[in-house]
Every structure is written in C-alpha cells, then in structure tokens.
Specification:
mainly alpha; 0% strand
Length: 207
C-alpha cells in the first residue's frame, strides 16, 4: 500500500528569505552610514554626507520592515507610507545641504570622495543583489528594493562627482550629484506613498 504522506521537506516560510535579506541589508547600511558620515565631514562633501543620511534612513527602514514582516497588509502598507514620506523628507534635506554648501563655497576633497564612493557602491550592489528577488512584492518590499537601487545609482554619481571635483577643483560636481540624489529620493518616496495609500484603502475595504 503506497504511503500518502509527502517525503519532501517542509516548505520554507514565505518571509524567511526576505527576513534574512533585511538583516544583512540592515547591517551593511548601518556600517556605511558611519563610514560616510565621518568621511563626508572630513572631505566637506555634500553628496557623501547626503548619502550617509540615506544609508541611515535605509537602515531604519529595514528595521521597521523586520518589525512588521508578519503583520497584515494594512500595517505593512502603513509602515511603507511612513518610509515613503521619510525618503521624500531626506530629499528635501539634501537640497538644504546643497544650498548650505554653496553658501560656504568650500570644494570637497576628491580622493576621499572617490574611495568612499567606491566602497559604498560595492556595499549597495551587494544589498541590491540580495533584495532583487523581492522587487515586485507589496509596497513594503518595493520600498526596500527602491532604497537599495537608488543607493547604488547614487554611489555611481558620487564617484563621477569625485572625478569632476578632481578635474575642476570646483564644488559644482558634488552639488549637482547631491541634487540628483535628492530627486531620486523624492520620486521614489512618491511611488511608495502612492502604492501604500492604495493598499491601505484596499485592505480596509476587505474588512
């Protein structure tokens, strides 16, 4: 008589891989926040300083995502809404930092910018690769993916800004990159807020 039970291993919980990915991303972002905060202050770089704030914001976002991973759609969407608004606020903070840097008129130190930019790019490419599989999930998962994607794009821009500063001795390349990073934060924040509001409304209708 054939056995009716399955000999396959128990299925992995849907959130287990995403949870591990978030923990790795959280550690990487906290580490790079410290590196870029110190390096940006040393190099007088608006783009590095802005990127350090972005790393910190992402680390907080990953921690919040871990806290609500098993929650219902309404609460996950609510957290995503907060994260989207946070990303938009960071974009405005970067704009303010650019204006402040322009007033001071101190060009950044290109070599430090370049070294830290390459290190940050490596960290974000690893993070983006880990989170790539979750890019089409709900607003909470989508926000995590967009954070890592924006960071990788921003780091490439920081490296290009370092080359520009080195070649011209001007602070303008650094300021231009900072504005680009602010735009990424604002647009990504808008996308996340829009989807999160839709998911909150949908979840309330299903109650």
């Amino acid at each position: 008589m054939a056995c009716s039970c399955s000999h396959e291993p128990a299925p992995i919980k849907p959130n287990s891989k995403f949870r591990m990915a978030l923990w790795i991303a959280l550690f990487i972002n906290l580490l790079m926040f410290i590196v870029e905060l110190v390096g940006g202050a040393y190099a007088h770089s608006s783009s590095l300083w802005a990127d350090s704030l972005d790393f910190f914001g992402d680390a907080v976002n990953y921690g919040i995502s871990l806290a609500v991973l098993g929650a219902g759609l309404y609460w996950r969407a609510t957290v995503a809404l907060v994260k989207g608004l946070t990303m938009a606020v960071f974009g405005l903070v970067v704009v303010a930092k650019v204006i402040y840097a322009y007033i001071l008129g101190i060009p950044p130190e290109a070599f430090t910018m370049g070294i830290i930019g390459v290190l940050a790019l490596l960290a974000n490419v690893i993070t983006a690769g880990i989170l790539y599989a979750f890019r089409e999930g709900d607003s909470n998962m989508k926000s995590v993916w967009l954070c890592s994607r924006n960071d990788a794009i921003g780091n490439v821009a920081v490296i290009l800004a370092a080359v520009g500063v080195f070649g011209t001795g001007s602070l303008w390349p650094d300021m231009i990159v900072a504005v680009i990073m602010a735009s990424l934060g604002l647009t990504a924040g808008y996308q996340i807020v829009k989807q999160a509001l839709l998911e909150r409304a949908t979840s309330q209708q299903s109650i």
